[in-house]
Amino acid sequence: MDQQYLLVILTIFVAAAAVAMVFQAAMLFGIYKSSRSMDEKARRVLPKVEALLDVSRATIEESRRQIGDIAAKTTGILDTTRRQLDRVDDVMQDATVRAHAQLERAEIALDHAISRAQETVTFVQSGVMKPLREIQGVALGLKTAIQYIVRGGRTDPTEATADEEMFI
After folding, report:
1. CA–CA gap between residue 52 and residue 45 (Å, rounded)
2. Percent of the chain having pLDDT more than 70?
3. Average confidence score pLDDT of the chain
4. Which three-class secondary structure state does DSSP give residue 156?
5. Does residue 11 belong to any structural domain of this protein?
6. Is residue 5 part of a domain?
7. Strand blocks (E) in 15-89
8. How far is residue 46 from each of residues 51, 53, 63, measured CA to CA in Å?
9. What is the C-alpha separation between 134 and 122, in angstroms, rounded?
10. Residue 12 lies in a domain
11. In this predicted model, what pLDDT tens digit does every residue of 88-110 receive, in sequence order?
């Protein structure tokens, strides 16, 4: 019984293996059908993808050309701007130097004018005002002398009192 039992078990296992192999074959057939269906769909989509790929390549090439043009123009604009800024900087430096020179000249002219004005004031003080004061003093002395002679030599007591009060 032992062999018979072993033979039955072996038959059951062989049958199970056969069923598993049939199941695997069915699965492989299903995978084959599915891959054929996918291949068919991919073949239908492939021309569209290739067209899209061609359009994408053309667009990328056009974009590269446009980017190259933009980069060249930008470089030109930056170079022009740099040159213009250098010119503006030169003009500003020249204007600053000239302004400093003009300020120095104006300061020299102003100092010269002030010194000339001081000389003129000194001249007027010493040449004109001093003699006028002397003349005024002489005229005042003559006036006082004439008043003294006209009054007869008498002094008015109110004047004497007023003169004394000024000094108190």
Report:
1. 11
2. 89
3. 86
4. coil
5. no
6. no
7. none
8. 9, 10, 25
9. 17
10. no
11. 999 999 999 999 999 999 999 99
